[in-house]
Design brief:
heterotrimer; A mainly alpha (255); B mainly alpha (554); C mainly alpha (105); A: 255 residues; mainly alpha; Four Helix Bundle (Hemerythrin (Met), subunit A); 10 helices; 0% strand; C: 105 residues; 2 domains; 68% helix; flat
């Protein structure tokens, strides 16, 4: 094998030899420096988030098309959602983003107990979000607004049968074909919030794991990669909700 | 044909290096839990070859059925299942991972002077996802197949068919994530793991091609994923998204499906083009003409490739204005591909050309891809597309680019890098013969299909009017020859593992960092991080190196 | 080394809790304004305002919670390209749907 041109030219291969004592335990062997490892994994997480953007993108496309085509149906269907729960959930999720960002800060400053507290708060807020979602989904189940075999058009053909909502919006009874299109709204509602909730569940699962590891001091050694990258994921899930909330809950709320 | 650049070490004294990535660890678990990109590449190679032959067998069944105008070999429903599984397997389980997951995985880290890809565990996960996808496809076949065509067109696939759409959809969904993670890994690696001195414009064009394909993998495949999720929901729950009776639009599925599947064809071809850049350069002893143009055209293909998907939907009911816009954009996307063909041709001009097997496959690529690509222009022109779409013209077009183009490039790459991966040379004469057989067989199989298409024979039909039989018989005859051409490499490459000549580090006198290492390489690729101080395809540098090289001791 | 020399060390740009607090309050305020505005009849502007506020909130989360303001050009470029393709998907698909209503020619 011919000599490396580097040696021929007198240059020095930077950290080319693997002196195991020189790099921290959490540095993987194929990386030259810790910075390279952090950079690479951070970039990888961003690319993964891009795939998530495109994944949700298909749903947003479907939403925009059908909202455009069936606006009255979407308006009436959107009235069936409870703005209070939706706003509360938005607040909960935004606050959880704050606690997550604070968690990353604690990890960067190596404050173990602060990190654990922030992660636990994020965890609880995440569960709170899911709890509220469960309440909302249950309500939809009761009213037969879940698309599929048992979907009911009653609330739209005869809005007065829903006294609370009718009192606020006074929707007129809809024609049958437009009423059928409300099922599309609810499919989008469940698909988009469901997909979002699935991502939340995965995130909360990982948070649970992280709380244990944080308590063991794994993230306060200067190795913040995992917490930082999870933070990116969590903020992304928050951003999805930031868009879902006005698109699904606030279609036409003015009287 | 006697001139050759192959330079092998003295066979009486040469040995495969004792320590290499294959011998480093032993045992099944060392393979199944490996992080070594080279081992993962070999795992992929074995898996995709397995699925290639299943897909090939299905192709054989198709051509056998089409020998006669009647649907006499199998029922029409069965025929539908055969061509669907052929498409699904060949596209998702063979072509999409072919070059990236095998050659890309193996060589990108070596070409940039790195020890491994950026995310080795994700790389292994990619392979496992591929295997799960493959198992689901096998399950589908055993459970009775699916007959919607690989395009799963709605509302057929959602409302009118009761074959295994769900399991196939799941298989494709999972295999899609395999592809996403591979692409993600490549992008991170190319950005963050290049050795000192390896600037973007010193990278081999193979890396540029994979970079472009990876962008497509990362940004396009998730849309396929959501399309399949919606398809599954429509089929099971009946949500109405693609159901006209509930106000849904079946075309929405097609928009989402083709938003991925058009970039998918570029995902398939770009890595092959990367291989061709390497082989054309090596076997003309000349740097690739217009390096920058080839590099940028790869990225341009990737970018433009996102904007043309509806040319698969010209007759499906999209608006005329959309047809106009997408047709125009399709014309644009042909330009970067043409630029590459021109540049490779100019690379050959005044080069010192030799005709080793990888070069034969590369010549095959250039001719057949050009034909395939040009027929794509007929299809991109909406006026002619109305007549040619859903006929055998389309079948011929995509087989020319995918089989005449991509598969030939894959074989070129396998032969080119075989000595590096295994340390052994394959037998040259038989491999050249196999390349020629493949070329002849391919043309006999698929050229008649262009004629059949213009004459009006529809695709995806088991029975056809009797006047089309002669051309179909030619096509089937060609397919038999093609089958021989594809079987031979499996046989002699396997043979070469034990009996092939020892290759040494650089049997082709190629440039590129991977050729500076032993064959097969060490697990960590390089003992010392290389420093790149010369441009890509610098044959003068290589000559100077070899002049200084010590070839014997004492 | 590829790009470590160019980009600023990530650990050194530690965003302070004060910034986070300001941002979260801005986000909550934005949410409140969105809900309040939705109850007022602004005709076609309702969705526009709602989306504009949502976009602003998203930008704040990306820049500050996700540290993009202090990240490398590569990160910024990556995000922009992702959004670009996302917008291409939506706009080109919608263009088909909306132009169907324009009739044959």
């Amino acid at each position: 094998m011919s000599d490396s041109p580097a040696i021929a030219q007198g240059a020095v291969a930077e950290a080319g030899d693997s002196h195991h004592g020189e790099h921290p335990a959490y540095q993987r062997h194929h990386f030259e420096t810790v910075d390279q490892q952090f950079d690479a994994t951070n970039f990888a997480m961003w690319l993964f988030l891009l795939t998530e953007v495109m994944f949700f993108g298909g749903l947003f496309t479907a939403y925009l098309i059908y909202r455009n085509w069936y606006y009255p149906a979407f308006v009436a269907a959107s009235h069936q959602l409870n703005v209070m729960w939706g706003t509360l959930n938005t607040g909960v999720l935004i606050t959880s983003s704050f606690t997550m960002a604070m968690g990353v800060w604690c990890a960067e400053l190596r404050k173990k107990s602060g990190l654990v507290l922030c992660l636990v708060l994020t965890f609880i807020l995440g569960l709170g979000f899911l709890g509220i979602k469960t309440i909302e989904y249950h309500e939809k189940w009761e009213k037969h607004h879940i698309p599929g075999l048992h979907y009911s058009l009653k609330s739209f053909l005869d809005p007065a049968s829903d006294p609370e909502i009718y009192a606020e919006y006074h929707d007129k009874p809809m024609a049958l074909d437009m009423a059928r299109h409300t099922e599309l709204y609810f499919f989008l509602y469940f698909a988009m919030t469901g997909m979002h909730a699935l991502h939340m569940i995965i995130g909360i699962g990982i948070l649970g794991f992280m709380i244990f590891r944080a308590q063991a001091g794994a993230y306060t050694t200067g190795h913040v990669t995992f917490v930082e990258n999870f933070g990116l994921y969590w903020h992304f899930v928050d951003i999805i909700w930031i868009f879902l909330f006005p698109l699904l809950y606030l279609i036409s709320r003015h009287a | 044909m006697s001139a050759t650049i192959v330079t092998l070490p003295d066979q009486s004294t040469a040995r495969i290096p004792k320590t290499n990535f294959l011998t480093k660890e032993n045992g099944l678990l060392s393979w199944l839990l490996t992080g070594d990109h080279k081992r993962i590449a070999i795992l992929y190679l074995i898996s995709i070859t397995f699925f290639f032959f299943i897909g090939g067998a299905l192709a054989g069944l198709i051509r056998l059925e089409l020998l006669t105008p009647q649907s006499d070999l199998m029922a029409t429903d069965t025929y539908n299942k055969v061509f669907t599984m052929h498409g699904v397997i060949m596209i998702f389980l063979f072509l999409v991972p072919s070059v990236p997951a095998t050659l890309g995985n193996f060589f990108i880290p070596m070409m940039i002077g790195a020890k491994d890809l950026a995310l080795p565990k994700i790389n292994l996960l990619s392979w496992y996802l591929y295997v799960v996808g493959g198992i689901l496809v096998i399950y589908t076949m055993v459970a009775g197949g699916v007959d919607t065509g690989w395009t799963f067109t709605t509302p057929l696939s959602t409302h009118y068919i009761n074959t295994n759409v769900m399991s196939t959809g799941m298989a494709v969904f999972i295999a899609g994530f395999s592809s996403i993670f591979t692409g993600l890994n490549f992008i991170v690696t190319l950005h963050k793991m290049r050795c000192p001195g390896m600037t973007w414009f010193r990278l081999p064009l193979f890396c540029w091609a994979h970079y472009a394909a990876s962008i497509l993998m990362v940004l396009g495949t998730p849309v396929l994923a959501i399309a399949i999720v919606l398809l599954a929901l429509e089929r099971t729950v009946g949500i109405g998204v693609f159901d006209p009776t509930k106000g849904g639009d079946p075309l929405l599925f097609q928009h989402l499906f083709w938003f991925y599947s058009h970039p998918a064809v570029y995902i398939m071809i770009l890595p092959g083009m990367g291989v061709i850049s390497e082989t054309i350069s090596t076997f003309s002893r000349k740097r690739v003409f217009g390096y920058t143009a080839v590099a940028f055209s790869s990225v341009a293909i990737a970018v433009f490739g996102f904007f043309v998907w509806a040319h698969h939907m010209f007759i499906m009911g999209i608006s005329n204005y959309a047809v106009l816009v997408f047709s125009l954009l399709t014309m644009l996307v042909a330009v970067p591909s043409a630029i590459k063909i021109f540049n490779w041709t100019f690379t050959l001009y005044k080069g010192s050309i030799t005709f080793e097997t990888p070069m034969l496959y590369s010549f095959g690529f250039m001719g057949l891809f050009t034909i395939g690509g040009m027929t794509g222009v007929f299809l991109g022109t909406s006026g002619t597309d109305i007549h040619l779409t859903e006929t055998y013209f389309i079948v011929a077009h995509f087989h020319f680019v995918m089989v005449g183009g991509m598969l030939m490039a894959f074989l070129a790459g396998i032969h080119f890098w075989w000595p590096k991966m295994t340390g052994r040379m394959y037998p040259e004469k038989i491999s050249q013969m196999a390349a020629v057989i493949t070329f002849v067989g391919f043309n006999l199989t698929f050229f008649p299909q262009f004629i059949l298409g213009t004459l009006g024979m529809p695709r995806r039909y088991a029975a056809y009017p009797p006047e089309f039989q002669v051309l179909n018989v030619f096509s089937t005859a060609g397919a038999t020859i093609l089958g021989v051409g594809y079987l031979l490499p499996v046989l002699y490459l396997t043979w070469s593992l034990k009996y092939g000549e020892i290759a040494g580090n650089n049997p082709w006198q190629a440039t590129g960092l991977e050729w500076t290492t032993q064959s097969p390489p060490l697990t960590e690729n390089f003992l010392v991080t290389p420093i790149m101080d010369h441009e890509a395809y610098d044959y003068e540098w290589l000559e100077a190196q070899q002049a200084k090289e010590v070839t014997s001791v004492g | 080394m590829s790009e470590q020399s160019q980009h600023a060390e990530h650990e050194h740009h530690i965003v302070s809790p004060r910034v986070y607090l300001t941002i979260v309050l801005a986000l909550l305020l934005g949410t409140g304004i969105t809900v309040w505005a939705s109850f007022i009849d602004l005709g076609p502007w309702n969705p526009v305002i709602a989306l504009a506020i949502a976009c602003t909130k998203a930008v704040l989360v990306v820049l500050f919670f996700m540290h993009v303001k202090y990240s490398s050009k590569l990160t910024k470029l990556t995000i922009v390209s992702g959004i670009f393709i996302f917008l291409a998907l939506i706009s080109m698909t919608l263009a088909d749907y909306m132009s169907r209503a324009w009739g044959r020619w």
